[in-house]
Amino acid sequence: MTLMQLHYVITISETGSLNKAAELMYMSQPSLTSAVKELEKELGIIIFNRTGRGVTLTSDGAEFLLHAKQIYGQYETVLEKYGKSGSLKKKFGVSTQHYSFAVKAFVDMAKSFDMSKYEFAIRETKTGEVISDVSTLKSEIGVLYLCDFNRKSMMKLLKTANLEFHHLIDCRAYVYLWKNHPLAGLESISFEQLEGYPCLSFEQGDNSSFYLAEEILSTNEYSQVIKANDRATMLNLMVGLNGYTLCSGIICEELNGSDYMAIPFRDDEQNQNSTMEIGYIIRKNMVLSRMGELYIAAMKKYLQID
Can you tell me the mean pLDDT for 141-159? Predict the structure, then answer.
């Protein structure tokens, strides 16, 4: 039994004629008759009584027609939503640690599409959720970083989630703070100079480990630490409390404004700098969508990567 055979039965019952039904479906009457007979043979029932005046449903045929209409109606609903001319909006999502360049690239990508025809999502979220979102296809692409400290644990998590990491850029640590911070005029800032100012970091959840921290040098001992859930709150804390955070130094003024700056972190023997390897994650062997390809291209363009 095929969907086409169901369509034949429904059309014949509506027209009451094999000839009219065949005409409507642009096929010959003998071909239509043959298809119906094959279906009747498969089901073991007679669907139509054939007379000189046309065709009528048998009692078995009338019962079967109810099921046929239900099944074919569901097929048409699916086709209407998912077919070439369907109403379903194509989806594309990105999950990322809190990087303004990742948001800027998303904006540039989205501008190249008619957004009334797409359902886009950008999620600045916890590291564990970035991994989970991509693993479950909630998002097609994730953006996060690796370093010497977290690399082994992170790669194990990615392997377990069937994900692969693609390198974008290497960065050294910068101190990100408000332009009127007491240390804002320095060419570089040491860990000792940061003593007395609150270190700001993004909340990773109650059961998270140091390996999931977004900020480099997360294992250092800080006298004051404040957790935040979003970038806007963190920026407010920089202004209100002269807080700071350690970041990649890649700042998008278009999104964050010009009231903040990134100053190189100056390491010492006890507080060694480290390289942040920022990249994106996708599912293994996945073919990227057109949106995904353009998003990665937009990130590389912003980061000036060939």
Answer: 93
Contact between 123 and 96 (Cβ < 8 Å): yes
Burial label for 232, CB within 10 Å (0-12, 13-18, 19+), is exposed
Mean pLDDT of 36-45: 91
Residue with tokens 């001992």: 221
pLDDT mean across residues, the chain: 88
Q: How far is CA 161 from the centre of its chain?
A: 15
Residue 29 has pLDDT above 90, yes or no: no
Q: How many contiguous H segments (helices) and E segments (strands) does the chain have?
A: 11, 13
Q: What is the mean pLDDT of residues 175-200?
A: 93
Is pLDDT at 86 greater than 60 in this prediction?
no
Q: Are 118 and 89 in contact (CB under 8 A)?
A: yes
Going 268 to 270 to 271 to 275, the CA torsion angle's sign is positive
117 Cβ partners below 8 Å, 6+ apart? 89, 90
| Cα–Cα dist 63/59, whole Å | 6
| pLDDT per residue as tens digits for the range 154-177 | 999 999 999 999 999 999 989 999
Rounded CA separation 276/148 (Å): 8
CA distance 194 to 246: 11
Geometric angle at alpha carbon 23, from 22 and 27, rounded to 5°: 55
* Inter-axis angle of helices 100-110 and 290-302, nearest 10: 130
